[in-house]
Design goal:
Elements: E1 9-12, H1 13-32, E2 42-45, E3 51-54, H2 57-63, H3 69-85, H4 89-108, H5 113-134, H6 142-153, H7 163-176, E4 178-179, E5 182-183, E6 188-194, E7 202-204, E8 206-209, E9 221-230, H8 250-274, E10 278-281, H9 287-295, E11 299-301, H10 306-316, E12 320-321, E13 333-343, E14 346-352, E15 360-366, H11 369-392, E16 395-397, H12 401-414, H13 421-432, H14 434-442, H15 447-461, E17 465-469, E18 472-476, E19 484-486, H16 487-505, E20 509-512
Parallel strand pairs: 6-15, 9-10, 9-12, 10-11
Antiparallel strand pairs: 1-20, 2-3, 4-5, 7-15, 8-14, 9-13, 13-14, 16-19, 17-18
Length: 514
């Protein structure tokens, strides 16, 4: 009896487990060298020759052409980490890969996969308790938030800017959108523009969109702007069916032209008299209307995207209007200033202050596309982790100190666990050592010596991380050096890595259709 098609391929038992584990380990290894302040970058080139240079774990894994289903699970780990807390993607992927490596050794010792899974889940619970014990007892103030942002960006491509200076901008942006209900993270945008040094990066109290004025004679700047947002075509109305009109005389032609001019003039006068200083519309604006409004000092942007229209409405408090006759003063939004500026081949519109200041934009500059892309990723991660830290109010030491503490607690708890599950719990602790070992290796230290020294310092001092200060590498309390991470980043990394590793370990049969 044939159950599967003849073209299907089936791998079972140890072969299936080994294949899946090997794929997961390979993915983890591909991003391991990017970890830490001395981590290296990866250059990714797609089939069309497009180049991405980054050390962001989620970006690397998403840009890689990964086909193996087990390896894809580690990509999902990074995606989940990025979506939930915004950073720690490399840490999560590396821990997951080493949990798989430790599981492979246990399987070779005839420890059943179910036992490994149970041991890993029990160890993960202990790990979460260890993270709670490492939380700093002080208040998460602006200084701590700057340290969180700086720790997130250290080692990433930030152009000519230091992580410290960018951290101030990031914290200012997050504080700007903080409300009594929490942080409105979606109100912070990052807009990139090539053509200047990264030192020109600034925080804009409002929004920035890729739009140019509908007419060259329109004002380049409007103060105390009343803003109308329309879904209206400002021009001569056209029917939905093809029609022809017979004109028998010059008088009839002149009448048709006059009627068209009257219609256009009516639109222009209606807008000019409405009181709107700035008009955004998602449809076309006739050149004659643009010219008339330019003479009236009205700034108009036409053919804006639907997402831009939503952003303007959200930022300024305007209401979108679908018919010009329905436009009322109550539909207007407000901003302290709307201005346009040219950057080479690009024109940008800045909507700043007033109601628009409820949203902020980190306006990122850089000399090349690669620089601004990496800056955008670094700043995006920093905004996410600062938001996470502010929301939870919990931070833990970075520089491998939290992983050392977790491994120590898990290893100690393993002694009280009976049966073969103890081996899995111990293996979980050993897998976490990959973080400090990798940090040491990436800074030029001997991984084994550094790990031994870190454990000894943790036993004696209670907190020890691998601190990189310029060319010097020392073992000390990360809090003293401002190397801190949100506790939720560590929790999410442990949970997502454990979930992925245990799911892969339990697979003993792979059926692939051709």
């Amino acid at each position: 009896m044939f159950i599967l098609s003849e073209d299907s391929q089936r791998t079972q038992g140890r072969d299936a487990q080994s294949s899946n584990i090997m794929a997961g380990k390979a993915v983890a290894e591909s991003v391991r060298t990017t970890l830490g302040p001395r981590g290296m970058d990866k250059m990714l080139v797609d089939s069309s020759g497009e180049v991405v240079i980054t050390n962001d774990g989620a970006t690397i894994l998403n840009e890689m052409d990964i086909e193996h289903p087990a390896a894809q699970m580690l990509v999902e780990v990074a995606d989940s980490q990025e979506e939930e807390v915004g950073d720690g993607t490399t840490t999560a992927a590396v821990i997951a890969g080493n949990l798989l490596g430790e599981a492979e050794d246990l399987i070779e010792q005839d420890v059943h996969a179910t036992t490994i899974v149970e041991g890993y889940h029990e160890a993960a619970e202990i790990a979460l308790e260890a993270i709670a014990e490492q939380v700093n007892e002080g208040e998460v103030d602006d200084e701590i938030l700057k340290q969180v942002a700086e720790s997130s960006m250290t080692g990433k491509g930030t152009g000519g800017l230091t992580a410290e200076s960018l951290a101030e901008t990031v914290v200012e942006a997050i504080r700007h959108v903080e409300t009594d209900e929490g942080v409105e993270r979606e109100n912070v945008a990052v807009h990139t523009q090539v053509g200047a040094s990264s030192n020109a990066t600034e925080l804009v109290p409002g929004i920035v969109i890729d739009e140019e004025a509908a007419h060259d004679a329109m004002p380049s700047e409007v103060e105390d702007a009343s803003i109308a947002v329309l879904d209206v075509e400002l021009g001569v109305r056209t029917g939905e069916i093809d029609a022809e009109y017979a004109i028998d005389s010059i008088d009839q032609l002149n009448q048709a032209i006059d009627a068209e001019e009257s219609e256009v003039q009516g639109y222009a006068e209606t807008l000019a008299e409405s009181g709107a200083d700035v008009v955004f519309t998602t449809d076309d604006v006739d050149d004659r209307i643009s010219s008339f409004l330019a003479g009236e000092g009205v700034l108009v942007f036409d053919n804006i995207g639907n997402s831009d229209a939503r952003q303007i409405v959200s930022a300024t408090g305007a209401s979108r209007v679908g018919a010009l006759d329905d436009l009322e003063e109550s539909d207007f939004g407000a901003a302290d200033r709307v201005r346009t500026k040219n950057y080479g081949d690009d024109d940008l519109a800045f909507v700043e202050g007033g109601a628009a200041a409820e949203a902020v934009t980190v306006f990122v500059r850089g000399g090349t596309e690669h620089v601004v892309d990496e800056l955008e990723r670094a700043i995006g991660d920093a905004l996410d982790v600062v938001s996470t830290a502010l929301a939870s109010g919990e931070v833990v030491p970075g520089a491998g100190a939290t992983e050392i503490a977790i491994a120590d607690k898990v290893r100690s708890a393993a002694a009280g666990i009976e049966g073969r599950k103890q081996l899995a719990v111990t293996a979980f602790a050993d897998a976490l050592d990959v973080v400090p070992r990798t940090l040491a290796g990436n800074t030029g230290q001997d991984p084994i010596d550094a790990l031994v020294d870190l454990r000894a310092a943790h036993e004696s001092e209670g907190r020890a991380g691998l601190i990189t200060d310029g060319e010097d590498v020392t073992i000390d309390d990360p809090f003293e050096y401002g190397v801190v991470d949100p506790a939720d980043v560590k929790r999410e990394a442990i949970e997502s890595a454990t979930e992925a590793a245990t799911m892969i370990v339990r697979i003993d049969d792979v059926i692939a259709a051709e």
